[in-house]
Amino acid sequence: MREYQTGEFVVKPITGVCRVEEILHLEMSGADSRKLYYRLVPLDNLQEKIYVPVSASETSLRPCMTAEEAWKFIERIPGIEAMWIDNEKTREQKYKEAVKQNDPEALISIIKMIYWRKKLRMEQGKKATQTDEKYFQMAEKLLYLELGTALGKSREEVYELIVEFMEKNRDNSGNLEQ
Prior knowledge:
Blueprint: E1 9-12, E2 16-25, E3 36-42, E4 50-53, H1 57-60, E5 62-63, H2 67-76, H3 88-101, H4 104-123, H5 130-151, H6 155-168
Antiparallel strand pairs: 1-2, 1-5, 2-3, 3-4
Helix pairs in contact: 2-5, 3-5, 4-5, 5-6
């Protein structure tokens, strides 16, 4: 089991990137005062505090990407397949699973799928569904916050970086090079 240190950045499912602020024994009702907890502060909400038992962190936390891992991931984005699901109920369930596991590849996969679904719906004169919009925003927030933390960039800069990288890796026919 990997233990995290104070000041380290970790990724918590659904919440995203957090900073380990303290490792402590909790003195509050309902908490086992013999257990050690991480006090986490989400980077996108510095007023919030989340307590995660150190023993449970093995399944619920993972280290934030390093700058090197982030660049390698960005380079792999063109080759990551969009997750395509026609069934509405199954699609939302897959969105939830991807956000919950907070795996960067799963997040980019649903971002790509929702992007193409939105484009297709617009061509048909329809708007994006609320479910697509909701999960698109969640997936982008989680992914771009982690990449931004690793690279020392804002979410907007990460978005522009990815778009620029994708554009640069298109061949003359408009297709992405593999």
